Amino acid sequence: MRRSRQRPAQTAPADPPRAPGAAPSDTGSEEDLTAPKWNFFNDELVRTGLWTKLTRMPALTAAAAGWAWRANRRDLLIALGASTVAAVLAAVSLVSVTRVLDALLAPGPLADRVGAALPAVAVVAGVAALSGAVRLVSELALARLGPQTERLVELELFGLTTRARLVAFDDEEWADAMYRARDRGVYEVPRMVTATLEGLAGVVSLVSLGGVLAVLHPLLLLLLLVSVVPTGWAATRAARMEYEAQRRLSTGRRRRWILGDRMASRDSAAELRSYTMRDSLMADYGALADRERETMLAVAWSQTRTRAVGGTAAGAATALTYACLGTLLVAGMMPLAAVGTAVLALQRTQGQMQSLLYLLNRVYESGLYFADFTEYCALARVRTPAAPTAPPPARLERLEVRDAVFTYPSGGTPALHGVNVHVEKGETVALVGENGSGKSTLARLLGGLYEPQEGAVTWNGTDFTALGPAVRERISVIIQDHTRWPMTARRNVTMAQGCDPDRLEHAARLSGTDEVVAELPRGWDTLLDTTFASGVNLSGGQWQRVAGARGFYRTADLLIADEPTSALDARAEARFFTTIGEHAARTGAAVVLITHRMASVRMADRIYVLDRGRVIEHGTHAELMAVAGRYRELYTLQADAYSDPGRG
């Protein structure tokens, strides 16, 4: 049962906050590390007994078998059939051993008894050889099935992460669920499949061996259960302890992984050294690692005590079983040959029972982690956009935002409130405002990446939610926080496997990427990642040119440029803003421009000024400069800074 966590109201930044898991936030006090306030999982996890496991087994095994069936049904059937045959052969072998004992313990000369036992011995040997061959077939099928199932589950996971709404990545619950699913949930499915098939074979073998014991004496079945239940209880309890600890540590482990990634990443290496962050980061990382170590050591100690209790009880029950066998023999209730067979059958059955309990525990343990994967899948499907209900969008005539209200999952105050904006075909519209005013959030609404909680965003009068992802195919974006993909320079521009040489050349010329590529050792085929052989690294300004080329390369009706020149030098910046107009004129695309360079928005057909998530002014440059408003204030501040050499 999930206990809802009351969070205090807080002011959400108008520009998008960093998604949980995207980068480590300020650590704060030592208390934040030892008793992290960012751990939002307060589930009341109940302890699970053997009976509960048995009742949940059908659903868990059905889920595992379903993934395996989709991965490769032939290997699944071969593994299941071979495991079942091997289990039956184990019972046949025991029956053959009984015949061997009967022959050897019968009255008469030893040579005659040995001769009479030889056929049964031959059967035992043949069954053992056949059983070994069948198990090899089963193991081969399972070995093939594992990676195929894992691949299928991974594709499902990433299929959901890439389809989910962008706002999901700003949610703490989503980030933790995705981490647990990737960390272990995905990889537990093959283990579940293997354990399930082995468990089914174990049930068949146990039924066969139990039948042999029942024939010898019904009391033996009861004694068998008494001897193995303590071990099963201990294994069940120990597994639950570990899972509860793993779940409690999931948020801390994610944070530790992020810190480790930043300490080992080239992108953060320069800043880490410039600000001498090594000692503080190592302290943060060490505190998290110590907390995890202490938790797992405590779990290991508790598990050891639990297993010791179970082992002691199992030993006492086994001693009782053999005492009963001795009593039956002395009382003449079982012949010596039957007692010998019973001892062998009990040993095999105890081993099979313990193995079956272990497999049951393994299936359930894997099921707990697999449930993290299914939990994330359910969470992701809820956050996946609904299927389009309108035809694919036509060429842009008018894009409009009406009374839009948008709030991030982490905040209580809307990042946008009552916003109205429109963009006409071929227009250049600028969004200006101070940091946190909501410009980037509004740009994401215009790009179809976010959906307002209130109001609407429409393309030619049709709501974006009805158009679905197809609307994004008509939109191109250039963002400040662009991704540096570990791919070739060409792929970093085209963002696809195919390439139109003419469009690529045009995009490179407009953005200045042609100058960057001309200096690369292998031109467009150069890998832009120094962690791979022959890879190279680009400067921030060079990467921003590549990001600009991405936006120009795509054939789109709308180009959204969010701070596209923040890392460019003055000459490159001037060239870029000139080429945006050239690109718009050539393609007929509308342009939405977000920049702090006020001089660069003068040519816009319309300028929207935002403040704390609201549009407070809009009009042309001349209209806004004619009134004493925020735009004129910001523009004048920058103009004065450039004109007065004593300022700045």
Automatic annotation (TrEMBL):
GO molecular function: ABC-type oligopeptide transporter activity; ATP binding; ATP hydrolysis activity
InterPro entries: AAA+_ATPase (IPR003593), ABC1_TM_dom (IPR011527), ABC1_TM_sf (IPR036640), ABC_transporter-like_ATP-bd (IPR003439), P-loop_NTPase (IPR027417), Type_1_exporter (IPR039421)
Keyword Protein biosynthesis found: no
Membrane topology listed for this record: Multi-pass membrane protein
Keyword Hydrolase: no
SMART domains documented for this protein: AAA
One of the record's GO cellular component terms: plasma membrane
Domain ABC transmembrane type-1: 77-365
Keywords assigned: ATP-binding, Membrane, Nucleotide-binding, Transmembrane, Transmembrane helix
Broad class of where this protein is predominantly found: membrane
Membrane-spanning intervals of the chain: 76-96, 116-137, 200-226, 319-346
Pfam families the record matches: ABC_tran
Signal sequence range: none
Name of protein: ATP-binding cassette, subfamily B/ATP-binding cassette, subfamily C
